[in-house]
Amino acid sequence: MSSLSLTTDRLVLHDFKMSDLPRVHKYASDPEVVRFMEWGPNTIDESKDFLRMTISHQKDNPRRYFDLAIVKKAENCLVGGCGLHVTSPHNREAFIGYCLSRDSWGQGYATETAKGLLSFGFSQLRLHRIFATCDPLNLASARVLEKSGMQLEGRLRENKLIGKRWRDSLLYAILEHEWKLNN
């Protein structure tokens, strides 16, 4: 199977490789970067395990897990990771997520990434519904999801156990016909 690569205006989203470890670990071990994530900050072994797992999923047939490196085209520099996971093939549903290094915040890369994942999901995978969740305190991520065309569907109460604390999540989603109206 060939390697997956998606292109946006300023980014390339491509399958991870083990050689990405130094850049992946840089953002995955940064406490500020992962403060709203369910994982991290990663040890080097946890970052290696993540890469091994995601690379093993690249061979799945049919493939349901698309974890991709976010690379700035201009500098050919890996600045984060993103993913689209098909949660229900029968219902043609998936969720998306993204994580960017601190030096890439506030430049529109997360929104560009989310839009790229939505385009891939609806155009190539023929999905019907794509959703995402975020911590209610993560206002930047909520803005990204809204700018990507997703709508707030509600609040999931205490649905994530982060460390020893229960956390709510905001649930966003977009349907195929809604995406087609704007693309």
Task: Characterise the protein shown here.
This protein has helices at 21-28, 44-57, 109-124, 139-147, 176-182, and strands at residues 5-7, 11-15, 65-72, 77-88, 93-100, 129-134, 151-162, 165-175. 30% of the residues lie in helices and 36% in strands. Helix 1 packs across helix 2. The chain has a single domain, classed as Gcn5-related N-acetyltransferase (GNAT) (Aminopeptidase, 3-Layer(aba) Sandwich). The model has no long low-confidence stretch (mean pLDDT 96). The longest helix is centred in the middle third of the chain and has 16 residues, at 109-124. Strand 5 (93-100), helix 3 and strand 6 form a beta-alpha-beta unit. An eight-stranded mixed sheet has the order 1-2-3-4-5-6-8-7, with helices on both faces. It is of the alpha+beta class. The chain is built from five helices and eight strands; from the N terminus they run E-E-H-H-E-E-E-H-E-H-E-E-H.
Give the topology, please.
Layout: E1 5-7, E2 11-15, H1 21-28, H2 44-57, E3 65-72, E4 77-88, E5 93-100, H3 109-124, E6 129-134, H4 139-147, E7 151-162, E8 165-175, H5 176-182
Helix pairs in contact: 1-2
